[in-house]
Amino acid sequence: MLAVLRRQADAPDDLKQRALRLAGDILELGGAAPEGQGLRLATEVLSDGRAWAKFTDICEAQGGLRDVPLAPHRRVVEAPSAGRITAVDNRVLARAAKLAGAPNAPAAGVDVHARLGDVVQRGQPLFTLHAQAPGELAYAQQFVDARPPIFQIAEAS
User: Largest Cα–Cα distance in the chain?
Assistant: First the structure.
């Protein structure tokens, strides 16, 4: 999300579009934009830097924008085969993040490297589990290993 707010070229476009649609709806529902104009206003606020400025103001009011901490224990989960990602079980992914210590440990969680529709190669990283303690990482990994694959991969056509 920070990449979107900072208007970085590598920001995920699907995330940007989803955020703009939601922001547009909120602007309309809150009366800050006339009906049908929320998306336009949200796009303008993001494009001219006002969204980033407001975000940094909010961060400063809460003690300042800090770098995201890095967990000392990580495990990369790779694609078992080549193909197109046809489904992602977000509930299982979220549960794995929680077992790794999120949200209680700020550095714990999941970093997703591939998205629905992506074509991946065998061995390509799909996601990384992050944990503060080796036991939490092992617990999350056991949970992931005991279930059907979180990322469904079909042969690419």
Answer: 52
Helix (H) or strand (E) holding 40: helix 38-47
Between CA 19 and CA 47 the distance in angstroms is 13
DSSP 3-state of 154: strand
Check residue 88 and give left, alpha or beta (phi > 0: left; psi -120 to 50: alpha). Answer: beta
| Range(s) within the chain of domains with CATH label 3.90.1170.30 | 73-154
Single-letter amino acid, residue 83: G
Q: Return the residue matching tokens 């224990």.
A: 73
Task: Taking each helix axis as running N to C, give the angle between helix 38-47 and helix 50-61, from 0 to 180 degrees, rounded to the nearest 10.
Answer: 80
pTM of the model: 0.74
CA 76/CA 128 separation, integer angstroms: 4
Residues 108/98, Cβ–Cβ less than 8 Å: no
Q: What angle separates helix 13-29 from helix 38-47, to the nearest 10 degrees?
A: 120
As given in the structure block, the two tokens for residue 21 are: 């649609």
AA letter at 155: E
pLDDT tens string 118-147: 999 999 999 999 999 999 999 999 999 999
Q: Which two tokens stand for residue 157?
A: 């056509």
Q: What is the third-level CATH fold of 73-154?
A: Aldehyde Oxidoreductase; domain 3 (3.90.1170)
